[in-house]
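Field reference: sequence -> structure
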Amino acid sequence: MNLMKCILAAIFLLISVFSFSQTQNDPFYFTSDVFAGKEATVIYNSNKTILKNEDKVEAIVYFWKDYKWTAHDVDMIKTDSLWTAKITIPDGVALLDFKFYTGDKIDRGSVYGYLTLDEQKRNLPSAYTGWGLLRGENTQQYSIPNLIKDSTQYIKDEVLLFWFNQELRYHPNERKNIFKYALEVQGRVNPEKCKEQTLREVDFVLHGDNNADVPEQTYIDCIKALQAIKNDSLANTLKEEALKKYPNGILARDIVIWSLFREGNKQAKENGLVELLNRFPTSKFSDIRTENSDLYYAKIIQSVIYNEVVTNNNYDLLYKYIGDAPYSLLDAFFWHMVQIPYRNNERTATQLLPYANLIMNEIVNRPRLESQLIYSPKEWVNMRLNRTKDAIMTYARILDETGDTAKGMTLLDSIKPYYNNKSADFNNTYTQMLIRSNRVGEVMAVIKSGIKENAASPEMIELLKQDYIKTTGSDKDFENYMNGLKSSDLLSKQQEKLRKEIVNLPIKLFEVERLSGEKVDMAKMKGKIIIIDFWATWCAPCIAAMPGMQMAVNKYKGDENVAFFFLSTQESNPKYKDRIKSLMQQKGYSFDVVLDSPSGNDTADLVYSTYAKEFKFSGIPQKMIIDGKGRLRWRSTGYFGSPSELADEISYIIELLKSEGNK
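Structure field:
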């Protein structure tokens, strides 16, 4: 489409869309014209959308006001075959749009949006700009998230300039508000013309009529526009002017942040943070986002707090600065200060509870920033629960261990839908806490749902087995019963994936040493299928995978032609052997643990490093299966969270090799 066709299309839309010509043939419509500051009734006919026949439909309305979108939940009420809602449109809202949904099924409403009217039935200031930015191919950062899925619905920059001109035609006073958008777009359409236009617009917004009190943000927008056309001289002049006018403003804060970020002295950095927050209080700057603040402010706070925690085991600064930390940092705080020490048994639940309470309370209850209001309250809660579900699960465990099982159970109930039965870790935790909450009647349904997704723990399988014995009188055919609960489609996909991973490569086999000092020469084990699991006491995923590996070991414990070796590698702790023995005893693992050999670099990783170089991999846990002919047939890096799935993987490869004639 050439430029003229784009403009003609824009003019057509100006006539058709802005006239509000909705009819009852549309999936949703208003019963009358929509006025800013008034109540309006919206009708939604789900029979014409993907939400047809749904028993419940929810909605979100988006308001465009002051050049920002905000999202609000709408209660839809079903009347006969239609859904209706009354919404109050705030004063100043120039444009609105909807999203209708049932669960994850979404009808995204209209990519065109709907313009409101003032009392004289005129479109409000910012309406044309908002409509253009809503659909702009290169302006989606100013639009509603995920509104447009079809790229053909975007409008080009040339058309967007047309809408800016329409804005100025009907609302000339908006020039100071839209210049930054217009220059950004013009810079892409006609860079040379943009240079001249930038100088003209900057002069107007800074020195035009009634511009004695220019906001600092306007200075910043002008500086960015000048930097975009490489006019650094004028940009620097304006920066100096703004700093004099706003000595404790955004630009001054950025300078202090950058300087403090580069400060290498820990005490000086902490003192500097105190001065920064006193001069630039968080309450005043929480909604301000700049490149410097986005890149460096969080790192400064993180550095100061972590240094005190790691160096002195002192959490006082966490309490002091938790309210000043960016929201994006809170998840990391919980991970490093609660989840990791809890997972690694470095601190007890009682020790961690105060920090867990502090951080989680901030995550849940901190008021949202202006930039976060693009999501409705329900959306925000759903996003938070989904994003922090692992943290919430750890928090629930800590609450359970410290005597508040009821609160922990409530939290687990809140995040259960976000795991959708696919996490063995959650399924196991949920099952155990159901039992402790006297909700035993729900346990088997949870276990069977987990088995179906092949996301089950040994404890869950044991509970299922006991229930099976209680029902049938014995454990005969239990394995077949359990396998019958698994999704055949899921198993088929898993097995297809495993078959594609089969290799047939020569591999050097080593002599290694058991914990007892006994030597084991794998090269002399021809005829046996050998499973090697590379792990270390410091490797959390390695240890997390052990329940699944124990399930596999148990399955083949009577098979003399299958040998499992758990090869400890890359250990640096002088007492690592004691740690291995303690782990095996504490967890009850019956593993044949062998030790990697020194490689000449003060690290015991000869076997691991040889294989890593030969087969081009890195990282542990690393699992390798060698057939009876002494050839590498399968290898896997990492652990993906399900003991039952891991055991099935190992078993499938073993049985596949046996079917080839490998014993």
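Note: The longest helix spans residues 291-312.
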